[in-house]
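User: Predict the full complex structure for these chains.
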Amino acid sequence: MNQSALNPGLRDIVRRIALGWTPAHTTIAIVVIAAAIGFLPFVKMGLVVNGVFLGAIIALGAVGLTLIYGILNFANVAHGDYMTMGAYATLFVVGSLLPRLGIESSGLGPFSFGYSLLIALPIGVAAIVILAIALEVAVYRRLRNRGVNAVVLAMASLGVAIALRGLVQMIWGGATYQYPRESRQVFQLPMDVRVPPDAIFIMVVTVVLVAGVYLVLNRTRMGKAMRATADNPDLALVSGIDTRRVVWWTWAMGAALAATAGILLAVFQAQLQPIMGWRFLIPLFAAVILGGIGNPYGALVAAFLIGVTSEVSTQWINPSYKPAVAFAMMIGMLLVRPRGIFGGGRN
Amino acid sequence: MGAQCKGGRLLALLEALDVVAGYGETEILHGVSLTVGDGEIVTIIGPNGCGKSTLLKAIVGLVRVRTGRVTFRGSAIAGWPPERIVRGGLCYVPQTSNVFASLSIRENLEMGAFVRRDDYRGRIDEMFRLFPDLGLRPGQKAGSLSGGQRQMLAIARALMLDPSLVLLDEPSAGLSPAMVGMVFERIREVNQSGVAVVLVEQNAREALSMSNRGYVLVAGENRLEDAGEDLLNNPEVASLYLGG
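Assistant: Here is the predicted structure of the two-chain assembly.
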């Protein structure tokens, strides 16, 4: 039976978990939950909360990456650099373009950034959507038409990733930049939890976009066609589905989510570097694999899991090993259950 | 080697002439011809690997036609992408994975109507009347349907465009005898509503008995073509494909 790829709704996720459930799973689940609860008193709540914010950014990148994986059937290694490009394109708009038009601002309400960033964000996102579709037409479609396999496409995207990063370094150099910002007071909560106001913005944007993805996939004609194409590409073709447009929409959605993730990451870290997206690639792929390749809801849950785990890990190990934690989770999952927590569409 | 079709050449809805096609280096069809008239049921039988399924795929554009002609309602469609052929009213039901397993029944039908720009909800209701099983739980995932229900859904999906011809690749494969009868009954109803049907079938006896005409393919070439009844009574066909 063809397991569903882009599965709508919580009920299905629950049903899917229940289907493959064995006593061994119950044991593992009890051990994991008990360990998590037992650990809780020793864990700094501040790190958990921070991990949730990080998870939200991972989620935006991973949902797009898994959609592209499910529908186009290859691993887009350039996804992290779409994030970088999104952040820098927005930097150009907010730092160079808008000031020329006399629009300059920072410190909107409790946030560090100004309303000019809210204007720049959709412009930056649109630029990356155009970039992604241009790359599809110029690179990936040509390769697919020659009938190359998924590995060749992934390698091509590695080339695209390096080229994009080189482009950023050529234009902006290796220095770190910031969006125009003012320091703002963080909210102090009990248990030593500190919430920067910008993090609230990140959460709101993530919730809105994920809800948007859900609605597109389940309520719109093109979204359903995307799920159909991921499920059975040949049948999609003979049903008369315009698969070329499905591919474009998939890139558009994936690139828009990635660009937004990059912008939010730049806000959250309060800096931009050419390597920022590339570094994010391991958590992104870890979330895609943990959640089951091609399954956006799995990727969403896994992203928060990875965000929290890697943040909390810094309590005991050097923060520079954070990507290693995500990497270890990915390897562990591939060894134990390659289909991911919730099962994926392909492979 | 033209088709001796009883309906007459002028009425041909689909005409395939000396079609050569295959996968990669391998050539499967070495010049096959097929004619389907308006509103006919035509059955293709033959041993495994004779190219029955490949012929259907070549007609609908999934396999490239190397040489030969395929004409549908007067247009030469060989070389067209499947999407364009489907839009013209020639729909196809593959033998396996012929539904979107992770989509609901209703969503499967919506995908069948993807190229329609008008309001097709009425057509979905018609499909639910024709296949009452599907209308009971339109939100159910196609992957959880029984074999027979899946086959009904696959056929209904192909009918969403109101085609003038459907190609069915072994619609009875893997079904219980009771379900086979049901599926054939539905196919007859579909045909009575004016849709021409091309059937590739292992259940040759049942298929031929309800067909206007039948073709026997062997090793990628036409072996026999005749009225359905006459093929049933042909001793060679009987001994080879009808189990004695």
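Chain A touches chain B at residues 1-7, 12, 221, 224-225, 227-228, 231-232, 234-243, 345 (CB under 8 Å).
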